[in-house]
Design goal:
Layout: E1 2-6, E2 12-17, H1 20-23, H2 29-42, H3 103-119, E3 123-126, H4 136-148, E4 162-166, H5 171-178, E5 183-187, H6 193-197, E6 201-205, H7 206-218
Parallel strand pairs: 1-3, 3-6, 4-5, 4-6
Antiparallel strand pairs: 1-2
Helix pairs in contact: 4-5
Length: 220
């Protein structure tokens, strides 16, 4: 699959062949759904906890004698039938929500999501992407140029979100992108299926394509 390549001025400079091992996979909704749900479950903080009748305070004395009062028989005011008593079948911290997803499935789901972005024309390949000054003004100018000259609708604007996959850690470039409200950035080796599905566009410098292709080779 071929796609356009853009320079720092937002102009098209040519075409590049996207590797099929990363951007040419068929859509697999079941796999993507399983990996995303497992990731959310593994991040879930199991803090909800209710006390059963053995944990609430009080209730050590029988409320009234067993017979002769004309009232129902009770042994403790901490019964779930009573206000202030224990909770039956409530949430407990002992419950484990973790789901096991192996690395091969997680990597395959990432490649499938990137392939879906490529088929939708939402992969933006750059010749290079660097902001040595670390100023957000330069990064904002690039995204404006991609809209005006490159014809990419609303990239980095008020509606469409963008993920920038940097080839290596670059503190100044990451700082410039961090100050843009609709732009996220991370190293290409740390891109996840959740981060890809959570944005409209994925911006990839040409050097990052090699990193993503190496991830695909790990799963072969």
């Amino acid at each position: 699959m071929e796609t356009n390549v853009y320079n720092a001025s937002g102009e098209k400079t040519g075409m590049v062949q996207l590797p099929d091992s990363v951007f040419g996979l068929p859509w697999n909704a079941a796999l993507v759904k399983q990996v995303v749900e497992a990731g959310r479950a593994n991040k879930r903080a199991n803090t909800a906890h209710t006390k059963d009748r053995g944990e609430v305070s009080g209730g050590g004395k029988k409320p009234w004698k067993q017979k002769g009062t004309g009232r129902a028989q009770h042994g403790s005011i901490r019964s779930p039938l009573w206000i202030g008593g224990g909770v039956t079948h409530g949430p407990r911290t002992e419950r484990v929500y973790d789901q096991k997803i192996n690395k091969r499935m997680r990597r395959k789901a990432l490649l499938v999501s990137l392939s879906g972005k490529a088929k939708s024309g939402e992969i933006v390949v750059m010749e290079d992407l660097s902001f040595p000054s670390g100023r957000a003004r330069e990064a904002h100018s690039l995204f404006c140029a991609l809209v005006m000259k490159g014809g990419i609708a609303d990239i980095g604007g008020n509606k469409a979100t963008t993920l920038v996959a940097l080839p290596t850690h670059d503190a100044s470039t990451a700082r410039a992108l961090r100050n843009l409200p609709r732009v996220q950035s991370c190293e290409a080796r740390n891109v996840t299926v959740e981060s890809v599905l959570g944005v409209k566009y994925v911006m990839v410098p040409k050097s990052s394509l090699l990193v993503l292709e190496s991830l695909a080779k790990l799963g072969q």
